[in-house]
């Protein structure tokens, strides 16, 4: 790493780009070592295969047999989750009527479809020319050439380990909760059309273990890609932060950009090129993760709204404390997932545009034409289309999107409360009318 820093200045315009470095086996190995905790965990679940886990080399321990087994295992997990999602259609019947039971079926089916979609997206990411591996390598490389290389690499390694541990925690805790709070209705919904005798202890235990096995893969395939998105968002946020600190505030940036020294004259253009490379890296990451972001935001918003409706409008169905706690945990989990993706993407977008105000306030009258052109080009990029992760290119995840989401949930919640109060008042008036009629007829 020391040789790397000696050969390449932080802001050198001759730096080898990450894409040119893609075939460096040592670089690939360093990237896999840094992200090993998360990548190995995803490989255990069947979400990662190919270059993401094994790298581009097949010598030594990295054999073709391991690649083949890993890919077959990923295909089996993918088929399992799609079988569960398609099987959920068998839980519907002609006797179903609109009500809490049907809404719970719809919410459960949406959850299973989301898990299958997340698995498909991960399989496509790993199969499409190793795009995930290249994206991870590019991020690590940008950290390697930053001014505080050792600090960035160590910090990123800690973030990866922390997120991996938290990911396993979010997988195991809900699964344990499902084991202890499972009931016959839940088992029938998950395992239909399979039939079990729930009065028999062994049969019920077998059904519970099978449902827990399915739940483990579904929750893991749903959660782990989200933590990968979170890690990449944090890494890019920190890289854009280093550029923002280099630009500095209005006073310091004025001194740098107005200087006539040759070495400082190159700084603005080098910063702009570094920012442009990070923007291309954000675009590459968006190509990989935009489908996952869209799936999570769409399905989890729908599931969370359905559960809120159940909690407010059908409170008698969840009078039992354990069922109410489980419902609240699912609602909290959905909101946290939406918040993590939204807030991570919004902070990344905000940090990418942070130098805008500083450069916009610079007085260009005493600056050479070359430097003024560089400043205008940088300003044009910062003031142009929003930089950040998107939802299938429909819109960018930024602060405006968070305010829209919060407004949507608040509006939905207020409407539900108002309808519930109206329904309660109507029932009370109807009961009073019946009581009055009974009194009159009694007379």
Provide a brief overview of the structure.
This protein is mostly helical and 443 residues long. It has helices at 2-7, 25-34, 36-45, 51-54, 64-87, 100-127, 131-144, 149-181, 184-191, 201-247, 250-258, 262-313, 321-352, 355-360, 369-383, 399-442. It has one domain.
Rg estimate, integer Å: 27 Å
- How would you classify the helix and strand content by structural class? mainly alpha
State mean pLDDT (0 to 100 scale): 75
Unreliable residue runs: 1-27, 259-266, 435-439
Specify the biggest β-sheet: none
- Termini gap: 97 Å
SSE sequence, one letter per element: HHHHHHHHHHHHHHHH
What is the share of helical residues? over 70%
Per DSSP, what share of the residues sits in E-state strands of 2 or more residues? Answer: under 5%
**Could you say how many structural domains there are in total?**
1
Q: Compute the number of helices.
A: 16
Task: Report the strand count.
Answer: 0
The outline comes out as globular
Describe the structure.
- This protein has 443 residues and is mainly α.
- The chain has one domain.
- The protein is 77% helix and 0% strand.
- It has 16 helices and no strands.
- Helix 7 (131-144) packs across helix 12 (262-313) and helix 10 (201-247) packs parallel to helix 13 (321-352).
- It is globular.
Search tags:
443 residues, mainly alpha
Lay out the secondary structure.
Layout: H1 2-7, H2 25-34, H3 36-45, H4 51-54, H5 64-87, H6 100-127, H7 131-144, H8 149-181, H9 184-191, H10 201-247, H11 250-258, H12 262-313, H13 321-352, H14 355-360, H15 369-383, H16 399-442
Helix pairs in contact: 2-7, 3-10, 5-6, 6-10, 6-12, 7-10, 7-12, 8-10, 10-12, 10-13, 12-13, 12-15, 12-16, 13-16
């Amino acid at each position: 790493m020391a040789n790397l820093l000696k050969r390449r200045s932080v802001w050198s315009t001759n730096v080898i780009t990450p894409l040119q470095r893609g075939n460096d086996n040592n670089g690939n190995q360093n990237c896999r070592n840094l992200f090993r905790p998360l990548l190995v965990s995803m490989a255990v679940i069947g979400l990662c295969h190919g270059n993401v886990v094994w790298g581009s080399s097949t010598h030594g321990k990295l054999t073709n047999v391991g690649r083949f087994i890993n890919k077959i295992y990923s295909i089996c997990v993918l088929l399992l989750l799609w079988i569960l999602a398609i099987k959920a259609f068998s839980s519907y019947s002609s006797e179903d009527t609109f009500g809490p039971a049907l809404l719970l079926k719809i919410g459960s089916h949406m959850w299973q479809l989301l898990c299958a979609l997340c698995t498909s997206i991960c399989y496509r990411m790993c199969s499409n020319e190793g795009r995930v591996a290249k994206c991870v390598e590019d991020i690590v490389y940008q950290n390697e050439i930053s001014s505080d290389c050792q600090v960035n690499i160590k910090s990123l390694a800690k973030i990866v380990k922390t997120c991996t541990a938290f990911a396993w925690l979010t997988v195991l805790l809900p699964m344990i909760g499902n084991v202890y709070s499972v009931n016959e209705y839940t088992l029938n919904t998950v395992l239909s059309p399979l039939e079990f005798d729930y009065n028999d202890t062994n049969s019920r235990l077998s059904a519970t273990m099978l449902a827990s096995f399915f739940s483990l893969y579904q929750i893991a395939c749903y959660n782990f890609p989200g933590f990968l998105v979170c890690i990449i968002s944090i890494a890019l946020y920190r890289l854009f932060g280093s550029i923002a600190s280099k630009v500095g505030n209005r006073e310091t940036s004025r001194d740098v950009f107005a200087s006539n020294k040759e070495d400082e004259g190159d700084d603005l253009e080098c910063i702009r090129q570094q920012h442009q490379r990070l923007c291309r890296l954000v675009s590459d990451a968006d190509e990989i993760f935009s489908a996952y972001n869209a799936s999570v935001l769409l399905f989890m918003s729908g599931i969370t709204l359905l559960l809120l409706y159940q909690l407010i409008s059908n409170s008698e169905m969840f009078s039992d404390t354990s069922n109410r706690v489980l419902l609240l945990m699912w609602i909290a989990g959905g909101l946290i997932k939406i918040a993590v993706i939204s807030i991570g993407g919004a902070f990344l977008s905000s940090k990418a545009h942070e130098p805008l105000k500083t450069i916009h306030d610079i007085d260009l009258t005493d600056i050479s034409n070359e430097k003024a052109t560089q400043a205008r080009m940088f300003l044009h990029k910062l003031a142009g289309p929003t930089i950040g992760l998107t939802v299938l290119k429909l819109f960018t995840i930024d602060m405006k999107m968070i305010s829209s989401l919060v407004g949507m949930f608040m509006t939905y919640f207020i409407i539900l409360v108002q309808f519930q109060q109206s329904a309660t008042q109507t029932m009370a008036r109807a009961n009073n009318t019946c009581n009055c009629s009974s009194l009159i007829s009694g007379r």
